[in-house]
Amino acid sequence: MPKKSAPIKKGDGTVKLKIVALAALAMVLPACSSIIEGTSQEILVNTNPSGANCELIREGLPIGRINPTPGAITIKKTKHDITMNCQKDGFEVATYLNKSDVAGATVGNIILGGGIGWAIDSASGADNKYTSPVTVTLVPKTGGQPAAPAAGIVEGSAAGQPSS
User: Fold this and answer.
1) How many whole angstroms separate alpha carbon 17 and alpha carbon 25?
2) What does pLDDT average to over the chain?
3) Could you tell me which of 42, 79, 47, 49 has the C-alpha nearest to residue 64?
4) Pairing label, strands 128-129, 40-48
5) DSSP of 88-149
6) Helices marked H in 37-125
7) Cα-atom radius of gyration of the chain, to the nearest Å?
8) pLDDT tens digits, residue range 52-110?
9) ω into residue 133 within 30 of 0, thus cis?
């Protein structure tokens, strides 16, 4: 025959312990992403070929530089994307857009911690993340001269007539 559980008696310490444990859990969970993900992140940047100079720009302002690549930089996380402009002699400037994405702990934070936890993490940037590592491929510059106008046509005039 199954054992019956004893009725909870007034003054039973296990009920108080459970309430205290739940209250402590509710206070810890609201900033889950802040604790698990943090408010800063290291981004590793590789270029092909290596040895490039990459500037990181967010909201039109430079936030860091990696020179030479490969290298890493620690940045503060925000909801704003980061543009990486990489350059090297003999190569075209290459641009990579590193989009700010939602950190994994954010979903759990919303489910378990509710709106308060999400608001805390959103304000601190902890609910965001960027792609890392990033590999940027640079394209060699072409060595040719600009194309000359076709024979018989003079730029700035109509049908070979001097412009007035």
Assistant:
1) 12
2) 72
3) 42
4) unpaired
5) -TTB--EEEEE--EE-HHHHHIIIIIHHHHHHHHHHHTTTEE---SEEEEPPBPP-PPPPPP
6) 104-108, 114-124
7) 29
8) 999 999 999 999 999 999 999 999 988 899 999 999 999 999 999 999 876 454 455 54
9) yes
d(CA 65, CA 48): 17
**In which residue are the tokens 């530089």 written?**
65
Q: Which two tokens stand for residue 102?
A: 């939602």
Give the DSSP H/E element, type plus range, for residue 34. Answer: helix 32-36
Residue of 132, 128, 130 whose CA lies nearest to 72: 132
- pLDDT exceeding 70 applies to what percent of the chain? 49
Residue position matching structure tokens 């996380």 = 77
Amino acid at the residue 148: A
Q: 5's torsion region: left (phi>0), alpha (psi -120 to 50) or beta? A: beta
Complete edge-to-edge strand list for the sheet that includes strand 134-137: 71-76, 40-48, 134-137
